[in-house]
Design a protein that fits this description.
With 129 residues, the protein is α+β, with helices and mostly antiparallel strands. It has one domain: Aspartate Aminotransferase, domain 1 (Alpha-Beta Complex), CATH 3.90.1150.200. 29% of the residues lie in helices and 24% in strands. The chain contains three helices and six strands; from the N terminus they run H-H-E-E-E-E-E-E-H. Strands 1-2-3-4-6-5 form a six-stranded antiparallel sheet, with helices on one face. Helix 2 packs across helix 3. The longest helix has 17 residues. The radius of gyration is 14 Å and the shape is globular. The chain starts with a helix and ends in a 19-residue tail after the last helix.
Amino acid sequence: MNKDVQEYHDALVGDDRAIADVLFEAICNGLPKAEYKIWHRHPVWFLDGNPVAGYSKLKNCMRLLFWSGQSFDEPGLHPEGSFKAAEARYIHPADIDTKDLKRWIKKSAAIQWDYKNIVKRKGALERLL
């Protein structure tokens, strides 16, 4: 874990920290070729500069976000925002279904929309894979 992500985790307490630890390990294992860093104040994984997965602390939960998640066709993910992102929210570590999580992470590598070039394309997203 790099220093910035470690500091992010160190600032979390209790169940939030435990959830973040599970998500970190699962995403790193599922996306071994991805680069990760703190982006917009939370951990995000990138494939070829394109954001694919990340998590963040919200007021009452931890949110797992997949930038192209609406295209995964998964009932456990819920639309987030006005583009293609989808999320799952967790209050307790036991809320995490590890089978679902592994499947979603695998889909995050296989199904991507080009967020890296969204500004260049004036808000238009194109499917990459």
